[in-house]
Structures are given as C-alpha cells and as structure tokens.
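Annex B. Sample input.
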Amino acid sequence: MHNDTDEKFIKNYRITPKDKVDLSKTPTLEKPDMKRSDGDTFLAEIHDDLKLLQNRLYAEGKKSILVVIQAMDTGGKDGTIRKVFGPLNPQGVRVHSFKQPNPKEISHDFLWRIHTCTPKHGMITIFNRSHYEDVLIQRVHKLAPKEVIERRYTHINNFEYLLHDSNTHVIKLFLHISKDEQKKRIQDRLDKAEKNWKFTSSDIAERKFWDQYMKTYELAINNCSTEHAPWYVIPGDKKWWRNIIIARIIRSHLNKLHCEFPAPEPNLDKVIIPE
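Annex B, continued. Sample output.
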C-alpha cells in the first residue's frame, strides 16, 4: 500500500532525535505536488487503504495507535480529526480532548489523567491536545517551576516508551501555522455567524504569547522526538494539503505494524447454514 513511497515522503516532516527544529525557519506553507482537485481524489484513495489497515488492526487486536495532535489556537486540530479520521470505522477510533485539569486531576501526577485514555489493543486513539500541555502552557504562563517542567520531558519520554513497549505506536503531530494565518482564521470566526461559537476571548489573549509558544514548542519537540515516538511538523496553512500529509503518515505507520486478520476457524468450506 505505497509504504516505500509514503516513507520517503514523510521523512520531510519527521523530526529525528538528531534534529534540532527551528520553527521560525520551518515553513507553514509549501507548494503541493498536485492540484487541489487531484488532492481530493488522492485523499479518497488513501482512505480506502486506511480503512483496510484499520480493519486489520482492529481484527488482530494485538497493537494500537496513539495520535497526539498539538497546535496553536485555530491550528486545525478539529479539522484534521474530521477530515483524516472521519471516514474510518468509528468502532475502532476514540478521540480525547484534554482541557484545563480539574481539582481531582491536579491532585495526581500530570500523566495520571492521560494514561487512562490511551488506546487498548486494536484501537486508534487521537489526543486533541495532550500531556504536552504540561510543558507548553505551563511553561509559557509559569504555572510550574522551571525545574519541574524540565523533568517532565524525561517523564514524557519514559511514558511514551512504556506505551511503545506495550505495542502502542505513538505518532505526534504539530500543526504548524503562521501568525498571519491564525489572524485570518480568528477573523473568520468573527465574521461568519455559524462559526461565532468557536471564538473565545482566550484566542486573543493567548495570541499575545505567540513567540513564547513557538520557543516552547521547539523545546518540547527537540526534547521529546524519539525513534519510538517521533514528532512530525506539518505545514498547516493549506488545510487540504495538511490532511494529505497526515493521512500518508498514518498509512505509513499502519503499514509498518504488519497487522493480519486472525486465522479463520477450520473447515469453513464444510459449514452448512441451517434453514
């Protein structure tokens, strides 16, 4: 299912442990290698492959996929989930959105609420925001001491290795949009009545910390992109192209799991269905 081609393609976006990403020099917009009209057809073909691969994952029931999606406000997390994962079998997909922790969650370690949401074997789970908020927003707004946040990178790497060691394949996506693009998307939420509900005043407040967030994302990606749980930096200004990139990343990783349908019961050719 095009795994060799996908693998060569997605290397352009994968951050290896040897890399040091500089988001100020990483494009948020790139020229696609196809027309938009061809892109819709191509994405539909990828979805045909993903449906079969997901079916094998679910039927085999021995491995799982965790997709972590992080982005600035209006970065496209919801759209990515809808457009890339929406066509899959909903029985095998779970989405968890992590908001500000409640008092019970705060009374535990920062990974406590995360671990209970990780996928069981056979499933694809998507985190809309994630455990990385504890080294992102907490760092920007100084909600935890710097030395505590520094230790969390190690805890995250160990946590993700535990998942990997338990047959959960971890894929982390940073949807990289420009500050200008964010402004356009916030304005769109203000201008269109059907999108007004998406706007919150925090969009404006957090935008003031743009540069600090970019540096904090760099630290998180550079400290926590590992062989077993790589980060991918996705140019996110062009939505349809973003979706194709991510769909190919998911297809490549599912292919590498080599899931198979369980062996059928013997002598199926001799089964007679009673009237």
